[in-house]
Amino acid sequence: MTETLAIGESVSVHTEAAEGVLHVLLNRPRKRNAFDLDMVRSLTRAIDARPADIRVIVLSGGSFFCAGADISVYGRGDLGEIGELTRAAGALVETIATVPVPVVAAIEGMALGGGFEVALAADLVVAGDTAELGLPEVSLGLIPGWGGTQRLTAQVGARKAKQLIMLGQRLPAAQAHDLGLVNEVVPAGTSRARALELAASLARSSASALAATKTLVSGAERALAYSDERATLMELFTSADGVEGVAAFVEKRPADFSR
């Protein structure tokens, strides 16, 4: 079965289901698959409306996994719109983390900001060897607000998480693998094929055992301070640094946080 999901005139997510595996393709290539509200809702709906026989979900983004939030939304400065996107994205990432089937992310190009936060919520991550992952929000005077501060800390420890977030470091795939953030590094362009291989193997396993494993292993991350993180992000949007950081990004100039 192949289905295209769309909201309004946006066709931002494609799905294909076969032999117990749902492949979900992020499809805003001109925006490097950056998330606007339509895309967040389309991806959430693709997961929630999966056919009953789906046992594994694969997320991919073509040659560029995801650049994070669509900064044009932030640039408009509408706190209602920004808040709606932030809440919907937080719910999306929680859906990925809690859906009772394994989620495998296939990363090519870059997974930045919200794209990395989506990968952090996945159960398995396969990355092409030229891929990079990172949380660059501090450069905008902001913080990761879709679970990144919490999940990254849970997965790599506080000291390393502070380094990666505070410095906005981009991790090459091999380094992300060394830190346990990526399960496998494969030749560039082959991550989706490998993710589908893993999904096929998982689909032959006990669905109840996989769901129980996901619940138990991920349990510690579910008790973290996600609501505090989102509230802090919303406060930063109205701070002098947040306004300057977003404006500088939109205007393609260095941010001046010394003012």
From TrEMBL:
Keywords: Fatty acid metabolism, Lipid metabolism, Lyase. PANTHER family: (7AS)-7A-METHYL-1,5-DIOXO-2,3,5,6,7,7A-HEXAHYDRO-1H-INDENE-CARBOXYL-COA HYDROLASE, ENOYL-COA HYDRATASE-RELATED. The keyword Signal does not apply. Its EC number is 4.2.1.17. One of its GO terms (molecular function) is enoyl-CoA hydratase activity. One of its GO terms (biological process) is fatty acid beta-oxidation. It catalyses: a (3S)-3-hydroxyacyl-CoA = a (2E)-enoyl-CoA + H2O; a 4-saturated-(3S)-3-hydroxyacyl-CoA = a (3E)-enoyl-CoA + H2O. InterPro entries: ClpP/crotonase-like_dom_sf (IPR029045), Enoyl-CoA_hyd/isom_CS (IPR018376), Enoyl-CoA_hydra/iso (IPR001753). Could possibly oxidize fatty acids using specific components. Belongs to the enoyl-CoA hydratase/isomerase family. This is Probable enoyl-CoA hydratase EchA17. The lineage of its organism: Bacteria, Bacillati, Actinomycetota, Actinomycetes, Mycobacteriales. The keyword DNA repair does not apply.
